Amino acid sequence: MVLREGTHLIQDAAMMRNQLRLRCLVVPAFLLLFVGPVLADEVRCGICGEVIEGDAYFITDRVTGEKVEVCDKCAKLPHRCFLCGLPVRTNSLSLPDDRYCCARDAKEAVVDQREAEKMFIDVEGELNRLFARFLTFPSDTNVTFAMIDRVDIQDLFKYAGNDYTCPDVWGYMESKTNGGQMKHDINLLSALPLEYFKATCAHEYAHAWMHENVSPVRLKKLSHDSIEGFCELVAYMLMDSENSDAGKKHVLQNTYTRGQVQLFIDAKERFGFNDVVDWIQYGTDVRLDAHEPTRIRDVVMPKAGADKR
Which of 46, 175, 180, 199 suits 33 as a labelling partner, its CA being 20 to 30 A distant? Predict the structure, then answer.
């Protein structure tokens, strides 16, 4: 009995020693659980990179769509990037029309007129290669291009006229007929990033094509959203051919087509671009219907020998 009790006492003592060891092992790990969050709370400002010690603000980056945490000091900076909407600090691009580009967006900004003219012609070539089976875009023989600032583009908005105009956030296209010859003036806002520049070029080229190849009666009946949706489809397809996710995202973020651009993309994927072109020219509806997508095939083709315009 005594030996048994002694054995139990020895066992109990051993158990107590093991429990003490476990407690010594658990305590440091337990403390680490509290140290982690304290270190993680040191959030840095997305603009200046400094640790945010006071108030913080979330500002949405219009280019990436992400929310950026900004310190109080940077949130109160006087200038914002006209593209992403974030406050601008050092290495920003200051434009003559009082616009600013942040350091990131300034790297891709198209600001040189000669470089822009070359890119504009290159886009025309890319479009004609991409859409060779379906349509031909106007060439530089009847298309003029200029890169203008915000003041000039706002003035163009005020005095829209002639045969057809397309005022856009990034560009302005005007078609006019003089002496039986059609001319298209395309103006793009300066300092656009290359992908935005090319997408806007494609959009305006699509407007020029429509004015040359869609009858005035049909063009007048089409809803504004459908016209813009088709032009955005052309821009989207160019960006897709270049594997530009940022360019496609920019097209889809535009809200002025009121959802028509997505319907045009869906129609192109389901029925093919040729059916989309036929609908634009000869469709019976004035806009695409999300509930009846097959109506894109409701067209009245011109009779053989008839004037398609």
Answer: 46
Stretch 245-251: mean pLDDT, rounded? 90
Residue whose token pair is 């310190």: 71
User: For residue range 261-270, what is the model confidence (pLDDT) as tens digits?
Assistant: 999 999 999 9
Kindly state the average pLDDT of the residues 87-99: 90
* Helix orientation angle between 273-282 and 260-271, rounded to the nearest 10 degrees: 120
Residue 105 and residue 193 in contact, taking contact as beta carbons nearer than 8 Å = yes
Q: Which residues pair with 189 in a beta bridge?
A: 148
For residue 108, what are the contacts with CB-CB under 8 A and spacing of at least 6?
A: 193, 194, 195
Alpha-carbon distance of 216 to 218, in angstroms, equals 6
Q: Which two structure tokens, joined as six digits, stand for 268?
A: 């192109």
- Check if the beta carbon of residue 296 is closer than 8 Å to that of residue 288: yes
Question: Given a cut of 60, is residue 47 above it in pLDDT?
Answer: yes
Residue 300's contacts (CB-CB under 8 Å, 6 or more residues apart) are 282, 284
Q: Are strands 171-178 and 181-189 parallel, antiparallel or unpaired?
A: antiparallel
227, with CB counted inside 10 A (0-12, 13-18, 19+), is buried
Instruction: Break the chain into its structural domains and give their ranges.
Output: 56-107, 110-297
SS3 label, residue 190: coil
Q: What is the pLDDT of residue 203?
A: 94
Q: Which helix (H) or strand (E) holds 187?
A: strand 181-189
